[in-house]
Amino acid sequence: MIRLPPPPRDSLLGSLHSPIYLRWQAGLQLGWLFALVQAPLVVSAFSWRWFAPTLLSVVVYLACYAGVFLGPLRRIPFNALAIVATGFAVWPVNGVAIGHVAIGLALLAFAARPRLWLGATAAATLLACVWWAWFGIPAVHILVVALAGIAGGTSNYLYVRSVRRDLELRLSQAEVRRLATLAERERIGRDLHDLLGHTLSLITLKSELAKRLALVDPARAQQEMDEVERVARHTLGEVRSAVTGLRAGDLASELVSARVMLEASGITLQTSLPERLDLPESVQASLALVLREAVTNIHRHSQASTARVDITRNGKDFSMRISDNGRGGLAAHGNGVSGMRERVRQIGGTLAIDSPAKQGTTLTVGVMLAPVLTESAA
User: Fold this and answer.
1) What pTM was computed for the model?
2) Quick check: 247 pLDDT over 50?
3) End residue of a domain, out of 133, 160, 175
4) Domain-embedded: residue 211
């Protein structure tokens, strides 16, 4: 089976991805050429006077017709008008050449320029009147030209516009899916950064401690390694949930984890947490990850001796303040801070960083909760 090559992208069939209707129309409109050649034989004997111009018009028609469907889009008007002109040239010796004119006007509408197509239809109708006066063509042909140009052109114009809008909609949907995929990748990247950065630091710290205690206090070393195993297993479950987007966070449990990490590295953690938070699950999950990243930064970079986390809730106002007495100088950018800002922004909150050199760092997160969320949580 012979397979034809795909049409060029910068063509009518290529740009519209070869709709069935266009391919069907492209083939059907070639069938009338048989009538163009044979019809005069019904009313008169063979004569080169009409046969030679008719045969030449067929060659021109095929070349221009292929140009409409397979040539560059910008050349559609040229090819369509060339077919119309060919029809008028052959019309005086072969009345069936009116098909050139009608089809050419209909094809012109594929250019999606209504003024050009309607103007050409009006001009062709006036020229048909001239042909009626000069060459005595039937007067009804004038009406045929006008109706064919308007009806055929309108059909083609509306069809192409509909197909192009459908393609634009598909492209926009594909773009939305692409952006959603990118956003999901970024989310997973932030989640994994927060999860693994915190946990690997804790595992490294406890492993080093167990290594030092292995000879002097084996029981304590065994206890530390058991804790490493517990943390590793817990984090593995969180990583799996993060990848599937099903992981939820909890501020209270995150504070417990933060205390374990900071106290293991010699940093005292003080906390203040209301008895009831009544936060939506999605908001609490994002805040838990912000807290985790902030505590990880304190452990890695602050060189602090004490840290404090104050969480308050006053009606619709929620605030979380994380501070330490370390060296300060925290930059307002980077993977960790950027991730925290993005998470806070997604829940409609604000993040402020105060980190003067050698005076510690304070991160303040503020969230204005919607009343409906508060009531539903209550």
Assistant:
1) 0.46
2) no
3) 175
4) no
